[in-house]
Amino acid sequence: MHELSITRHIAAPVERVWDVLVNRQEEWWCPKPWYAKIVEQDRRPGGRCAMVMYGPDGEEMPQEGVFLAWDEGRRFVSTDAVTADFQPAGPFMIGIWEVAPEGDGTRYTASARHWTEEAMRQHAEMGFEAGWNACTDQLQALCESA
């Protein structure tokens, strides 16, 4: 499997982490100064998963795909390999976001699975570790601040 992954213990109950993870994505999904705007999230397998990420210099990066799994309170999985009307798209990855109780907090894991080793290397070179860790920092801060 061609997977990149990060994991973190968050000092907040799993219910809180899940709530922030899925209901406040616009606040943590992109490393600042970038930000995301949700277009649609049809939270079910096969449902549309669409947002646009905006950069500080006017950049726009649309993300279009579908949910492959939605396990309420535990994980969601999405891919950009197909669009909501099941049209093939240039696949880049399958994203998996998971939460699980751990001690007095939550184990958060985010993974990106790629079709090829080359795509995985490309994602790593694009700054996967720094970018996804920055997003996790933002998620963690939101979860632990209440």
Q: Mind explaining what this structure looks like?
A:
The structure is a single chain. The longest helix is centred in the C-terminal third of the chain and has 17 residues. The termini are far apart. The protein is of the alpha+beta class. Helices cover 27% and strands 40% of the residues. The chain has a seven-stranded antiparallel β-sheet with strand order 1-7-6-5-4-3-2.
Runs with pLDDT <50, length 5+?
none
Per DSSP E runs of 2 or more residues, the count of β-strands stands at 7
Characterize the main sheet. Answer: 7 strands, antiparallel
Proportion in β-strands: 35-45%
* Subunit organisation of the chains: single chain
Q: Decide which structural class fits the backbone.
A: alpha+beta
Q: What's the alpha carbon Rg, rounded to whole Å?
A: 15 Å
Order of helices and strands: EHHEEEEEEHH
Question: Total helix count?
Answer: 4
The amount of helix comes to: 25-40%
Using the alpha-carbon principal axes, give the shape.
Answer: globular
Mean pLDDT: 95
Q: How would you write the strand order of the largest sheet?
A: 1-7-6-5-4-3-2
Q: Distance between termini?
A: 37 Å
List keywords for this structure.
146 residues; alpha+beta; seven-stranded antiparallel β-sheet; 4 helices; 7 strands; 27% helix; 40% strand; globular
SSE layout:
Layout: E1 2-10, H1 14-23, H2 25-28, E2 35-41, E3 48-54, E4 60-71, E5 75-79, E6 94-102, E7 105-114, H3 117-125, H4 128-144
Antiparallel strand pairs: 1-7, 2-3, 3-4, 4-5, 5-6, 6-7
